Amino acid sequence: MRNIDSHAATAAARRRACIKAGMITPSTILRRLGTASRKNKLYFAFRELGRVVRTEFLLKYIGDVELRRTIQAATNKSEEFNQFIKWLFFGNQGLIAKNVRHEQRKVVKYNQLVANLAILHNVEAMTGVLKEMQGEGLPINEEILAGLAPYRTEHINRYGDYTLDLDRVVPPMNFRNKNPIRFNALQLDLRNSTRIPATPLTGARP
Question: DSSP letter at 91?
Fold first, then answer.
């Protein structure tokens, strides 16, 4: 391990000095790293170093139960969010028709913006329901909050016409009082998701 690490570090330092001196371009380095030639010692050094690092992580993953739980929870959150934005991207069957990079980026960003707005709406509605439950004397603890997720879709009408009342006074999203509910929408545990009614995003169906 030490010999591999030392050789890789030395080779990387040499290449970095060459790039700074203008003797070689970064693209050339990348091409060399992608060439499995017997003469390419840099490729084999980094390949073996990567294998060692990967093996160390796998051994730690197998032996550490808490690490596996953390990774599983994070993976569940990411997959749940990906499914949520995919569900919202229903136009053109979720396909980006334009073959222009900046237009594709705009579509992705707009999709994520709509997802964030829907998440904000869900969290605001869920918080209101939780405050009502708390006001009725029902206990709201971390264990209950850990089973909630902001990726609700049952109440959202994706189709139809929407009437926007620009003169409507929007109530403030402020639920702070003597017993505030503290939870982060993006850090909720999605392994045991529990449904909570939320204010519907109404729309006239065609």
Answer: G
